[in-house]
Protein backbone atom coordinates (compact mmCIF):
# COMPACT_ATOMS: atom_id res chain seq x y z
CA UNK A 1 0.00 0.00 0.00
CA UNK A 2 2.88 2.33 0.83
CA UNK A 3 4.52 1.58 -2.51
CA UNK A 4 1.26 2.15 -4.37
CA UNK A 5 1.20 5.69 -2.96
CA UNK A 6 4.86 6.43 -3.57
CA UNK A 7 4.94 5.47 -7.24
CA UNK A 8 2.11 7.82 -8.35
CA UNK A 9 3.59 10.60 -6.21
CA UNK A 10 7.00 10.05 -7.79
CA UNK A 11 5.48 10.00 -11.25
CA UNK A 12 3.67 13.26 -10.54
CA UNK A 13 6.88 14.82 -9.22
CA UNK A 14 8.81 13.80 -12.31
CA UNK A 15 6.02 15.03 -14.59
CA UNK A 16 5.97 18.36 -12.79
CA UNK A 17 9.75 18.67 -13.01
CA UNK A 18 9.60 17.87 -16.72
CA UNK A 19 6.84 20.45 -17.24
CA UNK A 20 8.80 23.12 -15.37
CA UNK A 21 11.91 22.34 -17.40
CA UNK A 22 9.95 22.65 -20.63
CA UNK A 23 8.37 25.89 -19.45
CA UNK A 24 11.81 27.26 -18.56
CA UNK A 25 13.09 26.46 -22.02
CA UNK A 26 10.00 27.82 -23.72
CA UNK A 27 9.79 31.10 -21.83
CA UNK A 28 12.65 32.75 -23.65
CA UNK A 29 10.71 35.49 -25.43
CA UNK A 30 7.12 35.83 -24.26
CA UNK A 31 6.48 39.61 -24.43
CA UNK A 32 7.74 42.88 -25.90
CA UNK A 33 11.53 42.99 -25.36
CA UNK A 34 11.65 39.52 -23.85
CA UNK A 35 11.90 38.44 -20.19
CA UNK A 36 10.41 41.18 -17.97
CA UNK A 37 10.85 43.67 -20.81
CA UNK A 38 14.59 44.10 -20.17
CA UNK A 39 15.57 43.46 -23.79
CA UNK A 40 18.18 40.92 -22.67
CA UNK A 41 18.43 37.43 -24.17
CA UNK A 42 19.35 34.38 -22.09
CA UNK A 43 20.76 32.62 -25.15
CA UNK A 44 22.17 33.55 -28.53
CA UNK A 45 25.95 33.42 -28.13
CA UNK A 46 26.16 31.56 -31.44
CA UNK A 47 24.30 34.25 -33.38
CA UNK A 48 26.81 36.02 -35.64
CA UNK A 49 27.40 39.78 -35.67
CA UNK A 50 27.82 39.71 -39.44
CA UNK A 51 25.97 37.00 -41.28
CA UNK A 52 26.24 35.28 -44.62
CA UNK A 53 23.45 33.69 -46.70
CA UNK A 54 24.07 30.34 -44.98
CA UNK A 55 23.28 31.90 -41.59
CA UNK A 56 19.62 32.40 -42.59
CA UNK A 57 17.50 29.50 -41.38
CA UNK A 58 14.50 30.81 -43.31
CA UNK A 59 12.59 33.86 -44.52
CA UNK A 60 8.79 33.84 -44.21
CA UNK A 61 6.34 36.16 -45.96
CA UNK A 62 3.70 37.71 -43.68
CA UNK A 63 0.18 38.80 -44.62
CA UNK A 64 -0.19 42.59 -44.76
CA UNK A 65 2.29 44.77 -42.89
CA UNK A 66 2.97 45.68 -39.29
CA UNK A 67 5.43 46.67 -36.58
CA UNK A 68 4.39 44.03 -34.04
CA UNK A 69 7.42 42.14 -32.73
CA UNK A 70 7.42 38.33 -32.58
CA UNK A 71 6.98 36.35 -29.36
CA UNK A 72 7.98 32.70 -29.04
CA UNK A 73 6.79 29.71 -27.02
CA UNK A 74 8.40 26.36 -27.77
CA UNK A 75 8.31 25.85 -31.53
CA UNK A 76 5.65 28.50 -32.21
CA UNK A 77 6.03 32.18 -33.14
CA UNK A 78 3.12 34.58 -32.68
CA UNK A 79 2.74 38.08 -34.12
CA UNK A 80 0.19 40.62 -35.32
CA UNK A 81 -0.09 41.99 -38.86
CA UNK A 82 -2.72 43.96 -40.77
CA UNK A 83 -3.94 45.08 -44.18
CA UNK A 84 -2.83 48.73 -44.56
CA UNK A 85 -5.89 49.57 -46.68
CA UNK A 86 -8.76 47.82 -44.90
CA UNK A 87 -7.32 47.55 -41.35
CA UNK A 88 -8.07 43.80 -41.37
CA UNK A 89 -6.10 42.31 -38.48
CA UNK A 90 -4.12 39.09 -38.98
CA UNK A 91 -3.22 37.00 -35.93
CA UNK A 92 -0.44 34.74 -37.16
CA UNK A 93 1.34 31.65 -35.84
CA UNK A 94 4.51 30.38 -37.55
CA UNK A 95 6.81 27.42 -36.97
CA UNK A 96 10.25 28.15 -35.53
CA UNK A 97 11.57 25.17 -37.50
CA UNK A 98 10.96 26.41 -41.04
CA UNK A 99 8.83 29.58 -40.88
CA UNK A 100 5.74 27.84 -42.24
CA UNK A 101 2.36 29.29 -41.26
CA UNK A 102 0.66 27.01 -38.74
CA UNK A 103 -2.52 29.08 -38.54
CA UNK A 104 -3.94 32.55 -39.15
CA UNK A 105 -7.02 34.31 -37.79
CA UNK A 106 -8.52 37.29 -39.66
CA UNK A 107 -10.55 39.99 -37.90
CA UNK A 108 -12.40 42.68 -39.83
CA UNK A 109 -11.86 46.21 -38.64
CA UNK A 110 -12.30 49.80 -39.79
CA UNK A 111 -9.87 52.28 -41.27
CA UNK A 112 -8.85 55.24 -39.11
CA UNK A 113 -6.13 57.86 -38.82
CA UNK A 114 -2.59 56.68 -38.05
CA UNK A 115 0.75 58.40 -37.65
CA UNK A 116 2.81 58.03 -40.83
CA UNK A 117 5.24 55.71 -38.99
CA UNK A 118 2.55 53.68 -37.25
CA UNK A 119 0.49 50.73 -38.50
CA UNK A 120 -2.72 48.86 -37.73
CA UNK A 121 -0.50 46.17 -36.15
CA UNK A 122 1.95 47.93 -33.83
CA UNK A 123 1.15 46.04 -30.62
CA UNK A 124 3.26 43.04 -29.62
CA UNK A 125 1.34 40.06 -28.19
CA UNK A 126 2.27 38.14 -25.04
CA UNK A 127 2.18 34.37 -24.58
CA UNK A 128 2.14 31.80 -21.77
CA UNK A 129 1.94 28.00 -21.62
CA UNK A 130 -1.75 27.94 -22.61
CA UNK A 131 -2.77 31.15 -24.37
CA UNK A 132 -1.50 33.97 -26.57
CA UNK A 133 -2.95 37.47 -26.05
CA UNK A 134 -3.40 40.18 -28.71
CA UNK A 135 -4.62 43.79 -28.54
CA UNK A 136 -5.64 46.34 -31.17
CA UNK A 137 -8.05 49.24 -31.46
CA UNK A 138 -10.16 51.50 -33.59
CA UNK A 139 -11.45 54.85 -32.24
CA UNK A 140 -14.71 53.10 -31.26
CA UNK A 141 -13.51 49.73 -29.96
CA UNK A 142 -10.46 48.34 -28.18
CA UNK A 143 -10.10 44.58 -28.61
CA UNK A 144 -8.27 42.34 -26.16
CA UNK A 145 -8.37 38.67 -27.13
CA UNK A 146 -6.88 35.40 -25.91
CA UNK A 147 -6.33 32.43 -28.23
CA UNK A 148 -5.16 28.90 -27.58
CA UNK A 149 -1.84 27.92 -29.13
CA UNK A 150 -3.76 26.27 -31.97
CA UNK A 151 -5.70 29.46 -32.74
CA UNK A 152 -9.04 28.91 -31.01
CA UNK A 153 -10.64 31.85 -29.18
CA UNK A 154 -10.53 31.41 -25.40
CA UNK A 155 -12.09 34.78 -24.56
CA UNK A 156 -12.50 38.29 -26.04
CA UNK A 157 -13.11 41.70 -24.44
CA UNK A 158 -14.19 45.08 -25.81
CA UNK A 159 -12.50 47.69 -23.62
CA UNK A 160 -14.32 50.62 -25.19
CA UNK A 161 -13.17 53.62 -27.25
CA UNK A 162 -9.54 54.52 -27.87
CA UNK A 163 -8.69 58.23 -28.13
CA UNK A 164 -5.32 59.03 -29.68
CA UNK A 165 -3.56 61.04 -32.37
CA UNK A 166 -1.38 58.25 -33.74
CA UNK A 167 -3.18 54.91 -33.39
CA UNK A 168 -2.91 51.95 -31.03
CA UNK A 169 0.39 50.42 -29.90
CA UNK A 170 0.04 49.20 -26.31
CA UNK A 171 1.42 45.72 -25.63
CA UNK A 172 -0.01 43.49 -22.87
CA UNK A 173 2.13 41.58 -20.34
CA UNK A 174 1.59 38.55 -18.07
CA UNK A 175 2.16 38.51 -14.30
CA UNK A 176 1.16 35.61 -12.04
CA UNK A 177 -2.47 34.89 -13.07
CA UNK A 178 -2.97 38.37 -14.53
CA UNK A 179 -2.90 39.93 -17.98
CA UNK A 180 -1.99 43.61 -17.65
CA UNK A 181 -2.49 46.42 -20.19
CA UNK A 182 -1.40 50.07 -20.02
CA UNK A 183 -4.50 51.76 -21.46
CA UNK A 184 -3.24 55.34 -21.91
CA UNK A 185 -5.36 57.77 -23.93
CA UNK A 186 -5.31 61.32 -25.28
CA UNK A 187 -6.85 64.33 -23.52
CA UNK A 188 -5.21 67.33 -25.20
CA UNK A 189 -4.94 68.56 -28.80
CA UNK A 190 -8.25 66.89 -29.62
CA UNK A 191 -10.38 67.46 -32.70
CA UNK A 192 -13.49 69.62 -32.33
CA UNK A 193 -16.16 67.69 -30.43
CA UNK A 194 -13.81 64.84 -29.47
CA UNK A 195 -14.10 63.59 -25.88
CA UNK A 196 -10.91 63.08 -23.84
CA UNK A 197 -9.97 59.45 -23.32
CA UNK A 198 -10.00 57.68 -19.96
CA UNK A 199 -6.51 56.41 -19.11
CA UNK A 200 -6.02 53.48 -16.74
CA UNK A 201 -3.84 50.51 -15.96
CA UNK A 202 -5.95 47.38 -16.33
CA UNK A 203 -5.53 43.84 -15.03
CA UNK A 204 -7.56 40.84 -16.17
CA UNK A 205 -7.81 37.22 -15.14
CA UNK A 206 -5.62 35.64 -17.82
CA UNK A 207 -7.80 32.53 -18.10
CA UNK A 208 -11.27 34.12 -18.17
CA UNK A 209 -10.66 37.71 -19.28
CA UNK A 210 -12.62 39.08 -16.30
CA UNK A 211 -11.44 42.43 -14.94
CA UNK A 212 -9.53 42.02 -11.66
CA UNK A 213 -8.61 45.68 -11.06
CA UNK A 214 -8.38 49.05 -12.79
CA UNK A 215 -6.23 51.97 -11.68
CA UNK A 216 -7.23 55.40 -13.03
CA UNK A 217 -4.40 57.40 -14.60
CA UNK A 218 -4.32 61.05 -15.59
CA UNK A 219 -4.98 61.54 -19.30
CA UNK A 220 -2.78 63.98 -21.18
CA UNK A 221 -0.83 62.59 -24.14
CA UNK A 222 -1.49 59.02 -25.20
CA UNK A 223 1.58 57.02 -24.11
CA UNK A 224 2.78 53.61 -25.24
CA UNK A 225 5.16 52.52 -22.47
CA UNK A 226 4.96 48.84 -21.55
CA UNK A 227 5.39 48.10 -17.81
CA UNK A 228 7.72 45.66 -16.11
CA UNK A 229 7.88 44.08 -12.64
CA UNK A 230 10.47 45.50 -10.24
CA UNK A 231 11.57 42.94 -7.68
CA UNK A 232 13.75 44.16 -4.82
CA UNK A 233 14.97 41.92 -1.98
CA UNK A 234 12.78 42.36 1.08
CA UNK A 235 10.14 44.39 -0.75
CA UNK A 236 6.86 43.59 -2.47
CA UNK A 237 6.93 43.42 -6.30
CA UNK A 238 6.07 46.67 -8.10
CA UNK A 239 4.59 47.25 -11.53
CA UNK A 240 6.70 50.06 -13.06
CA UNK A 241 5.54 52.19 -15.97
CA UNK A 242 5.77 55.78 -17.23
CA UNK A 243 3.55 58.39 -18.88
CA UNK A 244 3.43 62.13 -19.51
CA UNK A 245 1.21 63.06 -16.58
CA UNK A 246 2.38 60.46 -14.05
CA UNK A 247 6.11 60.42 -14.84
CA UNK A 248 7.61 57.15 -13.60
CA UNK A 249 5.04 55.40 -11.42
CA UNK A 250 4.66 52.26 -9.32
CA UNK A 251 1.52 50.14 -8.85
CA UNK A 252 0.95 47.12 -6.62
CA UNK A 253 0.41 44.45 -9.31
CA UNK A 254 -1.69 42.28 -6.99
CA UNK A 255 -4.44 44.82 -6.27
CA UNK A 256 -3.83 47.89 -8.47
CA UNK A 257 -3.04 50.33 -5.64
CA UNK A 258 -0.81 53.23 -6.66
CA UNK A 259 2.42 53.06 -4.62
CA UNK A 260 4.14 56.25 -5.79
CA UNK A 261 4.87 58.43 -8.81
CA UNK A 262 7.68 60.88 -9.57
CA UNK A 263 8.99 63.17 -12.30
CA UNK A 264 6.00 64.40 -14.32
CA UNK A 265 7.17 64.62 -17.94
CA UNK A 266 6.59 67.43 -20.42
CA UNK A 267 6.04 65.32 -23.56
CA UNK A 268 4.83 61.91 -24.68
CA UNK A 269 6.41 58.64 -23.56
CA UNK A 270 6.70 55.94 -26.20
CA UNK A 271 9.74 54.08 -24.88
CA UNK A 272 9.25 51.82 -21.87
CA UNK A 273 10.96 52.32 -18.49
CA UNK A 274 14.29 50.61 -17.84
CA UNK A 275 16.01 49.56 -14.62
CA UNK A 276 19.77 50.07 -14.25
CA UNK A 277 20.99 48.89 -10.84
CA UNK A 278 19.07 50.95 -8.24
CA UNK A 279 17.74 53.55 -10.70
CA UNK A 280 14.69 53.65 -12.96
CA UNK A 281 14.93 55.51 -16.28
CA UNK A 282 12.24 57.00 -18.51
CA UNK A 283 12.46 59.18 -21.59
CA UNK A 284 10.08 61.70 -23.11
CA UNK A 285 10.06 63.50 -26.42
CA UNK A 286 8.38 64.27 -29.71
CA UNK A 287 8.98 63.99 -33.42
CA UNK A 288 10.22 67.57 -33.31
CA UNK A 289 12.89 66.87 -30.71
CA UNK A 290 13.51 68.20 -27.22
CA UNK A 291 13.85 64.65 -25.89
CA UNK A 292 15.30 64.01 -22.46
CA UNK A 293 15.82 61.23 -19.91
CA UNK A 294 15.07 61.21 -16.18
CA UNK A 295 16.38 58.87 -13.50
CA UNK A 296 14.39 58.06 -10.35
CA UNK A 297 15.38 56.27 -7.15
CA UNK A 298 12.40 54.00 -6.40
CA UNK A 299 13.28 53.70 -2.72
CA UNK A 300 12.88 57.43 -2.16
CA UNK A 301 10.64 58.21 -5.15
CA UNK A 302 12.88 61.14 -5.98
CA UNK A 303 14.45 62.16 -9.26
CA UNK A 304 18.15 61.38 -9.29
CA UNK A 305 18.93 63.58 -12.27
CA UNK A 306 17.70 64.66 -15.69
CA UNK A 307 19.67 64.39 -18.93
CA UNK A 308 18.78 66.79 -21.71
CA UNK A 309 19.66 66.03 -25.32
CA UNK A 310 22.94 67.62 -26.30
CA UNK A 311 25.99 67.05 -28.44
CA UNK A 312 27.18 64.44 -25.94
CA UNK A 313 23.85 62.68 -25.47
CA UNK A 314 20.84 62.38 -27.75
CA UNK A 315 17.90 60.96 -25.83
CA UNK A 316 15.60 58.36 -27.32
CA UNK A 317 11.93 58.96 -28.08
CA UNK A 318 10.48 55.75 -29.59
CA UNK A 319 13.19 53.07 -29.02
CA UNK A 320 13.51 51.70 -25.49
CA UNK A 321 17.10 51.69 -24.13
CA UNK A 322 18.99 48.62 -22.95
CA UNK A 323 21.40 48.34 -20.01
CA UNK A 324 24.58 46.49 -19.02
CA UNK A 325 27.07 46.83 -16.13
CA UNK A 326 25.77 50.18 -14.92
CA UNK A 327 25.57 51.65 -18.43
CA UNK A 328 22.44 52.81 -20.26
CA UNK A 329 22.51 52.55 -24.06
CA UNK A 330 20.04 54.87 -25.76
CA UNK A 331 19.30 54.41 -29.47
CA UNK A 332 18.16 57.80 -30.72
CA UNK A 333 15.45 57.85 -33.37
CA UNK A 334 17.56 59.82 -35.86
CA UNK A 335 20.33 57.27 -36.14
CA UNK A 336 22.57 57.77 -33.09
CA UNK A 337 23.63 55.35 -30.37
CA UNK A 338 24.55 56.80 -26.96
CA UNK A 339 26.18 55.45 -23.81
CA UNK A 340 25.37 56.93 -20.40
CA UNK A 341 26.93 56.18 -17.02
CA UNK A 342 23.76 55.41 -15.07
CA UNK A 343 25.15 56.30 -11.66
CA UNK A 344 26.51 59.73 -12.56
CA UNK A 345 24.48 60.71 -15.63
CA UNK A 346 27.68 61.33 -17.58
CA UNK A 347 27.45 60.80 -21.35
CA UNK A 348 30.37 58.58 -22.36
CA UNK A 349 29.88 58.51 -26.12
CA UNK A 350 27.42 59.28 -28.93
CA UNK A 351 27.88 57.99 -32.48
CA UNK A 352 25.74 58.18 -35.61
CA UNK A 353 25.48 54.83 -37.36
CA UNK A 354 22.23 54.74 -39.35
CA UNK A 355 19.37 56.64 -40.93
CA UNK A 356 16.99 56.22 -38.00
CA UNK A 357 15.52 53.77 -35.48
CA UNK A 358 11.94 53.02 -34.45
CA UNK A 359 12.37 49.49 -33.11
CA UNK A 360 14.19 48.94 -29.83
CA UNK A 361 17.58 47.29 -29.31
CA UNK A 362 18.02 43.95 -27.57
CA UNK A 363 21.20 42.67 -25.95
CA UNK A 364 22.86 39.28 -26.35
CA UNK A 365 25.76 39.11 -23.91
CA UNK A 366 27.91 42.14 -24.63
CA UNK A 367 26.38 42.84 -28.06
CA UNK A 368 23.34 44.96 -28.96
CA UNK A 369 21.16 44.28 -32.01
CA UNK A 370 18.76 46.87 -33.47
CA UNK A 371 16.96 47.14 -36.82
CA UNK A 372 17.02 50.53 -38.54
CA UNK A 373 14.00 51.98 -40.28
CA UNK A 374 15.49 51.00 -43.64
CA UNK A 375 15.95 47.38 -42.54
CA UNK A 376 19.64 47.31 -41.63
CA UNK A 377 20.52 45.33 -38.52
CA UNK A 378 23.27 47.09 -36.58
CA UNK A 379 25.34 45.23 -34.01
CA UNK A 380 27.14 47.43 -31.46
CA UNK A 381 29.26 46.50 -28.44
CA UNK A 382 27.60 47.17 -25.07
CA UNK A 383 30.72 48.76 -23.59
CA UNK A 384 32.26 52.03 -22.42
CA UNK A 385 33.89 52.41 -25.82
CA UNK A 386 31.93 52.58 -29.06
CA UNK A 387 32.48 49.59 -31.34
CA UNK A 388 30.41 48.84 -34.44
CA UNK A 389 30.54 45.07 -34.78
CA UNK A 390 28.29 44.50 -37.77
CA UNK A 391 25.75 45.79 -40.28
CA UNK A 392 23.39 43.43 -42.11
CA UNK A 393 20.70 44.37 -44.62
CA UNK A 394 17.27 42.70 -44.58
CA UNK A 395 16.18 44.51 -47.76
CA UNK A 396 12.90 45.93 -46.40
CA UNK A 397 11.88 48.71 -44.00
CA UNK A 398 11.26 47.80 -40.36
CA UNK A 399 9.83 49.32 -37.17
CA UNK A 400 9.99 46.13 -35.07
CA UNK A 401 12.17 44.88 -32.20
CA UNK A 402 14.23 41.66 -32.51
CA UNK A 403 13.48 38.51 -30.52
CA UNK A 404 15.76 35.67 -29.41
CA UNK A 405 14.84 32.08 -28.52
CA UNK A 406 16.57 28.74 -28.85
CA UNK A 407 19.84 30.45 -29.84
CA UNK A 408 18.11 31.97 -32.87
CA UNK A 409 17.53 35.61 -33.75
CA UNK A 410 14.12 36.58 -35.17
CA UNK A 411 13.82 39.81 -37.16
CA UNK A 412 10.58 41.31 -38.46
CA UNK A 413 10.39 43.75 -41.36
CA UNK A 414 7.12 45.25 -42.64
CA UNK A 415 6.03 42.01 -44.32
CA UNK A 416 8.64 39.32 -43.63
CA UNK A 417 10.10 37.43 -40.69
CA UNK A 418 13.67 36.13 -40.69
CA UNK A 419 15.33 33.44 -38.56
CA UNK A 420 19.12 33.66 -38.19
CA UNK A 421 21.79 31.59 -36.48
CA UNK A 422 21.63 28.66 -34.10
CA UNK A 423 21.91 26.00 -36.78
CA UNK A 424 19.08 24.62 -38.90
CA UNK A 425 16.45 22.04 -38.02
CA UNK A 426 13.94 22.60 -40.73
CA UNK A 427 15.85 23.70 -43.80
CA UNK A 428 16.30 27.12 -45.35
CA UNK A 429 14.02 29.10 -47.63
CA UNK A 430 14.49 32.35 -49.49
Automatic annotation (TrEMBL):
SUPFAM superfamilies: Quinoprotein alcohol dehydrogenase-like. Gene3D superfamilies: 2.40.128.630, YVTN repeat-like/Quinoprotein amine dehydrogenase. Keywords: Signal. Transmembrane segments: none annotated. SMART domains: PQQ. Residues 1-26 form the signal peptide. Residues 58-301 form the Pyrrolo-quinoline quinone repeat domain. InterPro entries: PQQ_b-propeller_rpt (IPR018391), PQQ_rpt_dom (IPR002372), Quinoprotein_ADH-like_sf (IPR011047), WD40/YVTN_repeat-like_dom_sf (IPR015943). It comes from the Bacteria. Pfam families: PQQ_2 (PF13360). This is Outer membrane biogenesis protein BamB. It comes from Lignipirellula cremea.
Amino acid sequence: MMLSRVIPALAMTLATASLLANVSLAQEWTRFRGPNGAGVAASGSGIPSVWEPDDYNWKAELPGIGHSSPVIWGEKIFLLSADPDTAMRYLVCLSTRDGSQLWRRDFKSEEHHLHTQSSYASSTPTVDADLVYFAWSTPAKTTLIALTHDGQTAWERDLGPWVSQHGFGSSPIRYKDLLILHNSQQANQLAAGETPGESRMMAFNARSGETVWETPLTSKNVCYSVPFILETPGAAPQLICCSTAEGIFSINPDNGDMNWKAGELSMRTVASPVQVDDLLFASTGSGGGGNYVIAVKPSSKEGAYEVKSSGQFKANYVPTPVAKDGLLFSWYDKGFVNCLDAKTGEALWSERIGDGFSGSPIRIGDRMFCISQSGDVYVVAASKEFKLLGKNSLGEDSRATPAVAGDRLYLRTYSHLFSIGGGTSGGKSN
